[in-house]
Design goal:
With 400 residues, the protein is an alpha/beta fold. Helices cover 52% and strands 12% of the residues.
């Protein structure tokens, strides 16, 4: 048997194992470089949009435990030169969420529809109701959140400068709770800070994270919030970029929420999010690819972002590409793994992490193995409809 006959099978296997991770590697390179570079100076506003009244929406499903604190955090925000109103959407609640929200000073919209359950349905219901009133802009904040005092004024400022949609920094409040929470916090800094900063550096649409985002009245009238998957924020963002609209990054303000405290709650939350992401990959990859091939180059980055898997799975793909004894694909895999390391270190640096985060990285292999244990749950979540499953957030809560 000739040398070429021995090499060809390994070369083919190496290429086949390297290809699934290639879009994600290109995207990581683009965003890591953009995130490390100094931010661009803001462009001079070419128009001033009259944004006055703002509604801050809080979708809530059985959130009696903490809804009053969230409303209080929002009502403490600086109103700027125009007012804002806090509106809680009590969606299919079986507890005292609505009453507690009213007592805390929020307007409450109650919704009951056992067949159409989910955050996307709740937001669509609220937007359709409030668009009948003279609100110029809307901000969405989760029911387990505390916010920066300048949240309303900063998002209003960007809307007045012409932003159609905005996403602010979204950070974890309790990364020190456990080793797994700290690792999740590192991934949070990468996904919710470094990557948004990188996209904004290249003037790309930064994405929606489901918490701490804003939309103008004009945007919602042209693109109704008809997103009903378990990752409705990602679904709606794909619709926005497909329609030619960009989400800008509000780097000077942010929202904070707790990560789940228990292993079971964390596993359930990750399975829902990542299962929903795989659903979006299946649904949207053919759409974006067809439009890219027809000449819409602005959709190349959203397609690459869609194909970038969560870092744990991206690392597993790169490790698989190391296995065949074929030099070029092994070199690619090693460079890809080095890029992941640089990306994580940059996220810690840009996201404000510290030396404890660096120490926590030593346990990352065990975190990756843990992610493998929830693959079946991820698969189920990628097939199911958008049921709203509330995440257990503290050590005293019992599972539903």
């Amino acid at each position: 048997m000739t040398h070429d006959a021995l090499v060809w099978p390994w070369m083919l296997l190496g290429i086949l194992l390297a290809l699934p991770s290639l879009p994600g590697t290109i995207e990581l390179l683009l965003l890591t470089l953009g995130g490390i570079l100094p931010p661009r100076r803001e462009d001079e506003a070419d128009r001033t949009v009259p944004i006055e009244r703002i509604a801050v929406l809080v979708p809530a499903h059985d959130e009696a435990e903490g809804i009053a604190q969230t409303v209080a955090s929002l009502r403490a925000c600086d109103p700027g030169d125009a007012g804002f109103e806090v509106v809680v959407i009590a969606d299919n609640c079986t507890d005292a969420t609505a009453e507690l929200a009213r007592s805390a000073g929020a307007r409450v919209l109650e919704r009951r529809d056992p067949q159409r359950r989910g955050k996307g349905y709740a937001l669509d219901f609220a937007f359709r109701s409030l668009l009948k009133e003279p609100f110029d802009g809307f901000i969405v904040v989760d029911a387990d959140t505390r916010v920066e005092l300048n949240l309303v004024t900063e998002l209003r400022r960007l809307m007045r400068r012409g932003a159609a949609a905005i996403q602010c920094c979204y950070r974890l409040d309790n990364p020190e709770h456990s080793l797994r929470a700290r690792l999740r916090g590192i991934a949070w800094m990468a996904f919710n800070v470094l990557r948004l900063r990188g996209r904004e550096r290249w003037r790309l649409s930064v994405g929606l994270l489901g918490n701490g985002f804003g939309l103008t009245r004009e945007t919602l009238l042209k693109e109704p919030y008809e997103a009903t998957s378990v990752v409705e924020d990602m679904e709606y963002h794909l619709r926005l970029v497909a329609a030619g609209r960009r989400v800008v990054f509000a780097a000077n303000t942010g929202v904070w929420s707790d990560a789940p405290y228990t292993r079971e709650a964390g596993a359930g939350q990750r399975a829902r999010w990542e299962g929903g992401r795989f659903r979006m990959i299946l649904d949207w990859t053919p759409i974006l690819l067809r439009r890219v091939l027809s000449g819409e180059r602005r959709l190349i980055e959203p397609l690459l972002e869609l194909l970038l898997l969560p870092l744990a799975f991206h690392v597993l793909l790169l490790l698989a590409a190391l296995l065949p004894p074929f030099g070029p694909t092994r070199t690619y895999a090693l460079l890809g793994l080095a890029l992941v390391a640089v990306h994580v270190l940059a996220a810690i640096r840009i996201g404000g992490g510290g030396w404890r985060d660096l120490l926590a990285l030593a346990s990352a292999p065990f975190y990756i193995l843990w992610k493998l244990t929830i693959l079946r749950a991820i698969g189920r979540a990628s097939r199911t409809d958008a049921a709203w499953v509330r995440t257990e957030r503290n050590e005293t809560e019992q599972k539903d």
